[in-house]
Design a protein that fits this description.
The chain has four helices and no strands. It is mainly α and 89 residues long. Helix 1 crosses helix 2 and helix 3 runs antiparallel to helix 4. The protein is globular, with a radius of gyration of 14 Å. The chain starts with a helix and ends with a helix. The mean pLDDT is 95.
């Protein structure tokens, strides 16, 4: 797993909408983005690791679905999280 508890808690605290918020769309997208960054770096050095590449594609698809949901429900929150994380769409 790419994220240790301290890093995960830091991300949750940064993107949480409330005090006990750990599962909002923004938090999920931020956590997925960190895992995607980790796997991208991993695959730069381990080019033949096809199982990790498949996992990366699944994570990207999950993040895309969450971002689509957020865009359809609350466009302002979508713009905020997109700009904060540097995601294209």
């Amino acid at each position: 797993m790419a994220l240790d508890q301290a890093k995960k808690a830091e991300i949750i605290a940064k993107y949480a909408r409330g005090e006990n918020d750990t599962g909002s769309t923004e938090v999920q997208v931020a956590l997925l983005t960190e895992r995607i960054k980790y796997l991208t770096d991993h695959l730069k050095t381990n080019k033949k690791d096809h199982s990790s590449r498949l996992g990366l594609l699944k994570l990207v698809g999950q993040r895309r679905r969450l971002m689509r949901y957020l865009k359809n429900t609350d466009l302002e929150r979508w713009h905020t999280i997109k700009d904060a994380l540097g995601i294209r769409n």
